[in-house]
Amino acid sequence: MSRVLIADKLETAGIELLAAAGVEVDNRPGLKGDELKAAIRAADAVICRSQPKLTAEFFDEPGKCRAVARAGVGVDNIDVPAATRKGVVVMNTPGGNTVSAAEHTIALLLALARRIPVADATMKAGGWDRNKFVGTEVAGKTLGVVGLGRIGREVARRAKAMDMRVIALDPFVTAAKAAELGYETAANLDEMLPKVDFLTLHVPLGQDTKSLIGARELGLMKKTARVLNVARGGIVDEAALAAALAAGTIAGAGVDVFTAEPIVADNPLLKAPNIVLTPHLGASTLEAQENVAIEAAQLIADFLLKGQVANAVNMAAVNPAELAQVRPYVDLARRLGLLQAQIAQGAVRKASLTYRGELAGQKTRLLTAAFTAGLLEYRLSDGVNLVNAELLARERGIEIAESSSPKKGDFAALLHTEVETEQGTTVAAGTLFGDQYVRLVQLGPFRMEGYLDGVLLVFRHRDVPGLIGFVGTIFGTHKVNIAQMTVGRQAPGGEAIGILNLDGPPPEQAIAEVKAHPQISAVTVVKLPAAGELPTWLG
Ligand SMILES: NC(=O)C1=CN([C@@H]2O[C@H](COP(=O)(O)OP(=O)(O)OC[C@H]3O[C@@H](n4cnc5c(N)ncnc54)[C@H](O)[C@@H]3O)[C@@H](O)[C@H]2O)C=CC1
Ligand SMILES: O=C(O)C(=O)COP(=O)(O)O
């Protein structure tokens, strides 16, 4: 009989579903340390929410555990790469708590605007003050929504119903799509922040979003503005927010999520003025908990009893033998996607892939999925993989088109990609040398032979003598080694593009010095995996 550890508080509907399916349920929420480790090892699968921190050590020796289901969205409390390495499938249940998280955000917004918690507390302490708690209407005010995914969209829709003006910021939402929904867009945070009366964050916690709102960003906002964080602790810097509230440079905040949960006594937000706090209650409604408990239990029952995998954030349902054959091209396609994600400016509308020569008609769906996974993987909270990449792109209104042409050009096989955003189209094409070495052979209109790994410095320039030496000297001075370099140009003395492969990330100062050259028009730093480093879904 299969055994499932329930490592968090889970609605009984989920537990009943497992029992009815003939699975043994070990319902022990709140286990920690060695006890949790032992319970995981003894189970075939685990169901959790955000409380247990399933760090790498829990997957070191997973015993018989083969799957973790997160009854909710954010998997930031689970070390997914560590789980993957050990072959543990991690699944989640996006969508089930979307409405609850959105409603909680609106509840905090109104509680702040009308100062309800403090008025309530004052009254219960014997007070009656109708002058001290004068609030503000939200109608006519501007709400900035950062992250217009599932929850952000529901928040924006509700704000619109309250006659708020909505400005959205999300790399996967074009101005046209936003306008269709009745929202404005901002090109970046700096443009959005000075305009908003309320700011709400609905992005996953990741490298890009940690401290997304810090002292500098809070400083760009109106003194009368209020900040809401129902996403994840740390997306808004806690110390900076507490300081801005104390200084009165921000008028209020509503926070549901914290860097350490349960909150620690010295968290500066506990003592900050004009703040409404809730203990991670965004998904805590009967409805949401029933949804996610049933969904998570069903995922685990199907996995254990039928071998079926759905909603996996770290696993591709691709036949292993097939994958082995095309692995180097899958790697190339993903790297081109990662490159395009970092060089394309503005919200992505469409990606068009053309398979030329020997690649024509060869598992192109798989390669297109790999390219799409690369294009999306920096931004989304769900782990993007071969299985879900195209669906996730479609959900975000990104069209993915592919075509094949068996005619051979300069290369026996070529993958040509074009990414269209509201600001233009970027072209990148790649191939394999010697059936295994991944190479970039075209960027924009320029032909070249570039390496698609590590840190790349891409610079557009005019092909004038001495320029390459100028750039090389800058990196030499800053002690950043240049491992490779390639230049593509159409004609001597004309427009050109240079790519340097650097042995480490370049300091800001070095980039500023490169940009200062009058013949260099644009500089972009692109971060790609090291050569041979494969994504977890391909490893
Ligand atoms: N307080 C609570 O109880 C709950 C909190 N959450 C949190 O909310 C987050 C969002 O959930 P969903 O809306 O379901 O996820 P989602 O994946 O549907 O939406 C996330 C959106 O953020 C956008 N995004 C990513 N990086 C961005 C950036 N740097 N700037 C602007 N936009 C960016 C993505 O393009 C995507 O559209 C989850 O990751 C989770 O951490 C989710 C449920 C309940
Ligand atoms: O689904 C999410 O990401 C949440 O933050 C909800 O967390 P919880 O399940 O209530 O611990």
TrEMBL record:
The keyword Amino-acid biosynthesis applies. Residues 106-282 form the D-isomer specific 2-hydroxyacid dehydrogenase NAD-binding domain. Its EC number is 1.1.1.95. It catalyses: (2R)-3-phosphoglycerate + NAD(+) = 3-phosphooxypyruvate + NADH + H(+); (R)-2-hydroxyglutarate + NAD(+) = 2-oxoglutarate + NADH + H(+). Residues 326-443 form the D-3-phosphoglycerate dehydrogenase ASB domain. Residues 4-314 form the D-isomer specific 2-hydroxyacid dehydrogenase catalytic domain. It is an enzyme of class 1 (oxidoreductase). One of its GO terms (molecular function) is phosphoglycerate dehydrogenase activity. CDD domains: ACT_3PGDH-xct, PGDH_4. The keyword Amino-acid biosynthesis applies. One of its GO terms (biological process) is L-serine biosynthetic process. Gene3D superfamilies: 3.30.70.260, D-3-phosphoglycerate dehydrogenase, domain 3, NAD(P)-binding Rossmann-like Domain. Pathway: Amino-acid biosynthesis; L-serine biosynthesis; L-serine from 3-phospho-D-glycerate: step 1/3. Keywords: Amino-acid biosynthesis, NAD, Oxidoreductase, Serine biosynthesis. Residues 456-517 form the ACT domain. Belongs to the D-isomer specific 2-hydroxyacid dehydrogenase family. Catalyzes the reversible oxidation of 3-phospho-D-glycerate to 3-phosphonooxypyruvate, the first step of the phosphorylated L-serine biosynthesis pathway. Also catalyzes the reversible oxidation of 2-hydroxyglutarate to 2-oxoglutarate. This is D-3-phosphoglycerate dehydrogenase. It comes from Frigoriglobus tundricola. The lineage of its organism: Bacteria, Pseudomonadati, Planctomycetota, Planctomycetia, Gemmatales.
